[in-house]
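User: I'm preparing a small set of examples for a lab meeting where we compare how different chains pack in three dimensions. I only have the primary sequence for this one, and I'd like the structure in token form so I can line it up with the others. Please keep the answer compact; I'll paste it straight into my notes.
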Amino acid sequence: MSVVIELDEKIVAKIDAVVKDSDKNRLQYTNETLQKSLQRDLARKGKLSEEEVGKMYKEAYGKFPVQPEEFEIEEDQMIEVWKDL
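Assistant: Understood. Below is the structure token output for the 85-residue chain.
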């Protein structure tokens, strides 16, 4: 489907600057960006299926894998937490 939309010149210039050094064209970049934004908005509103949310998490962790130090906790920190249990 083809839809004509009007964009601010400054936004178009920024899009062009981004796609200039990539393997995407303006249309591909815009479609991809809108799709990601739509997914985030639908996820926030609870309007995505568990499968769609799972795909989003998989993609995010693929781009930003968990680092070993993210879940490291020092012994003194554990003692501080445990003392209140």
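A couple of notes for your slides: Residues 59 and 65 are 10 Å apart (CA to CA). The chain has one domain: 9-82.

User: Perfect, thanks.
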